[in-house]
Amino acid sequence: CRIVQRAAKLLGKTEDEQYFQELADRIYTGFNRRFFDLKTGTYESATQSSNVLPLAFGLVPAEHRKQVIDNLVSDILVTHQGHTSVGLIGMQWQMQVLSSIGRADVAYQIATRTERPSWGYMFDHGATTSWERWDTDTQDGGMNGESQKILSGNFEAWCYQTLGGINYDPNEPGFKHIDLNPHPVGDLTWVKSSHVSVYGKIVSDWKLADGMIHWHVVVPPNTTATAHIPTTLPEQVHELDQPLDQAPGVHSLVTDETGVIAQLGSGTYEFRAPFQIR
User: Fold this and answer.
1) Which of 233, 218, 230 is nearest to 261 (CA)?
2) Interhelix angle for 65-74 vs 48-56, to 10°?
């Protein structure tokens, strides 16, 4: 409903926009009345998936969001010892939701497990594609396909979007404006990522060395980008050998708790900044 509401707004269909906004609001209220447990701060069945999906679709009331997030993280890290418990539907959203709530580190723990259920377990037991289920090697009969892209497709997207940090701006489709926001996590020391857009190749390659992050960025012609430069010392960020505020193509610098946010024109950039994974 929110998607149709937004489409109607873009098309100037005011009545449709209002109708789907009101319908979405009613669904939001009804969904929480039926499925949300105020006492526990969880959604019905209290599984990872039942908490991931409301977070993904903006259904969690603001005043309960922290509690739902805390319960989700606890279920992953404590109850399941760093493993996922979702299936096909939950996996479409879990990794991206964890990144959006500021817990890319938890997503990385899921991604690097080697005990079942995990992708690492599949690899260690001879899989060359994703299995249809986490226990295909032991489950008898039924669903046992070994070409189930859906169980890994959004994990792969997460690698590009979160680890590499290449994202599109939904307000300017087609990568006309690019959101670059890499997340160094865990024991990861480098990432090489690229995407060939209609405007040309977008590149985001970073590595950690000697307490510094070195980030190679390419913004294609006729596009712009917002770059989130992760650093613990914003005043010491450089592009090549010059301070960031003096670098050609870099403007509108803003500092937040994660580092520096810079607006970039098209071109190639070599950022260098102090950084330690917290």
Assistant:
1) 230
2) 140
3-state helix vs strand vs coil in the chain, percent to 5: 35, 25, 40
Task: Determine contact, residues 117/137, Cβ cutoff 8 Å.
Answer: no
Q: Pairing mode, if any, of strands 224-230 and 177-180? A: parallel
Residue appearing with tokens 């499925």? 35
The label of the residue with tokens 């959006």 reads 100
Q: Is the pTM of this model over 0.85?
A: yes
Compute the residue count for the chain. Answer: 278
Asked if 8 contacts 24 with a C-beta cutoff of 8 angstroms, the reply is no
φ and ψ at residue 276, rounded to 5 degrees = -135, 135
From CA 66, how far away is CA 55, in angstroms rounded?
11
Residue 192's beta-bridge partner residues? 205
Distance CA 30, CA 32 (A): 6
Strands of 177-180's sheet in order across: 166-168, 177-180, 224-230, 259-264, 250-256
pLDDT tens track of the chain, all 278 residues?
999 999 999 999 999 999 999 999 999 999 999 999 999 999 999 999 999 999 999 999 999 999 999 999 999 999 999 999 998 889 999 999 999 999 999 999 999 999 999 999 988 988 888 887 787 777 665 656 666 666 776 889 999 999 999 999 988 889 999 999 999 999 999 999 999 999 999 999 999 999 999 999 999 999 999 999 999 899 999 999 999 999 999 998 999 988 999 999 999 999 999 998 76
Q: What letter represents residue 266's amino acid?
A: S
d(CA 226, CA 212): 21
Q: Look at residues 140, 83, 144 and name the one whose alpha carbon lies nearest to residue 110.
A: 83
